[in-house]
Amino acid sequence: MAHLVLDPAAYTVAVGAETVELLAKEFALLQFLYEHRNQAFSREQLLDRVWALEYPVERTVDDHIYRLRKKLARWSHIRLNTIRGYGYSLTIEEPRKIENPSIHDEEMQSAVRGLFEKYHLLGQGKSIVALAAQHEVLGFEIDAFFRRYIRFIEGDIRWFLDTDEIAAGERLYWLLLLYWGIAADSERALEYCEAALRQKVMTPEQHREMEILNILEVYADAGQPEKAIARFPHTRRVMESDSLTGFVMPVAIMEMYVHLTAANLAEADRSAARLERLLQSEPYIREIGRFHIMKGLRLLADGAERDAEERLDEGLEVLGMALHMPLYFAAVHQIRLFLHRHRPDSRLRHKYAALYDSLDKEYRLSEVRPEMERRIESLLNGGDRSV
């Protein structure tokens, strides 16, 4: 299936090397129809689900469809269909393919894999998505991990619920990471993670990451930072014995967050100083964004709300630039938890609650959360083992 690359920051849509600029309302309509392609919607449904009460007349939908058709006309395989007497649908036909010789060139495939891995290391999610969108033009295959990783950083929860491409243990791993940042109850998220580790159903690499990194932040989110701190020595031993150099900064960020939630401010400051040194030599955008969030929480601990707000917003902006929606969800979640526990009277509580509400609406988090919980529980109870 031809892949559209939608950029909500710039209101652009790209297919291959071609990019088209849209108006904000046109972009919202296209994004909705693309997410629900092959489904027909009445004008009333589009008004309600795309723009809520912003537009009072159905004619507005027709106008936007007309303009979108003109702008997308260069891509003949993308069709905005009129359903007579009802409304509209979007369909995408598979364009005729001529296989590039490079698809069978092992040297080329290895080089592209190296580029994907480098972008992954640097935290450049948008670069990964942009490169993947060019795979037919440039003549390379996207390997299984990056096909899944792209869905992950885009926050495509529905795909991880519905796909038949991944085994049960791996599905559980991805769903747990996605659930972490949107859980209404962090203790529930912790119970899921602990059960997954006890049952050893994930791949060895995913089990190890959950054990030495992911679950420690969930302990802090659930108000149990002391349990995370007790596991720090084990994390360091595993990192050293397995030569996990790529975990150095993520673990340092995790430790800073855990110490902040435990009110160990001197230890949090030591972690911050170490991260400053690490980021000078390895300025990875994903870690830069998370570090700004932690610095913002540290400023909140001192009551410096204005400076904290600036840091937090900068961190969220960088995570958005990095295109890592699960970490973006988690950052907003952790900001809200920290404010609730340490600054309950702060004006910032309303601001970040409103930000979460906007994410909830855009990604339908409240709608999909119960289904995630049912699927995770099924996987933990031994169900869903057929894939």
TrEMBL record:
Family matches, as InterPro entries: OmpR/PhoB-type_DNA-bd, Sig_transdc_resp-reg_C-effctor, WH-like_DNA-bd_sf
Any one Pfam family match given in the protein's UniProt record, by short name: Trans_reg_C
Annotated DNA-binding residue span(s): 1-92
Entry keyword set: DNA-binding, Transcription, Transcription regulation
Listed name of the protein: Winged helix-turn-helix transcriptional regulator
Origin: domain of life: Bacteria
Keyword Transcription recorded: yes
Keyword Transcription regulation: yes
GO molecular function: DNA binding
Gene Ontology process terms (BP): phosphorelay signal transduction system; regulation of DNA-templated transcription
Domain OmpR/PhoB-type, residue spans: 1-92
